[in-house]
Amino acid sequence: MEERGSEQDERLRSELWEALYDLFLDEHERHLESIAELGVSPGDLKALMRLVPGDREPMRALADMWRCDASTVTWIVDRLEKQGLVERQAHEKDRRVKVVVLSRRGRQLRTQLMSRFYEPPAILSELSSGDLDTLHRLSLRLRPKTP
């Protein structure tokens, strides 16, 4: 009987993940449409979301963080700089190294994007209070554990 239970659990896990993944993909599409209205490309979005306000990231660190080569980082930073969203500055200890920092406009746009992204999907309004409570408790258990 235990074998059957594990098959059923595996099926439930699979169906759950498929439903969640489909929801995430739908929301991702909604976000891409939303950012297009703001003149932000998907590549710009990825960069803006990974830049932390107040942090000064060397270009090499950005290449590692964004998992791309240095020429791609230069291209992305050039685009963001032309839009007034980031600034290149000299590293405080090594002036040969360029660091990237969000500009005032970049911080504002990032805040605006974050608020849009954390707006709950409409489908959650269709859940009962009890279902929302259960989903909330379970989702907290699914969050990655920080070291």
Automatic annotation (TrEMBL):
Domain HTH marR-type: 13-144
Superkingdom of origin organism: Bacteria
InterPro entries: HTH_MarR-typ, MarR/SlyA-like, WH-like_DNA-bd_sf, WH_DNA-bd_sf
N-terminal signal peptide: none
SMART domains xref list: HTH_MARR
Coiled coil: none
Record-given protein name: MarR family winged helix-turn-helix transcriptional regulator
Origin species: Actinomadura rugatobispora
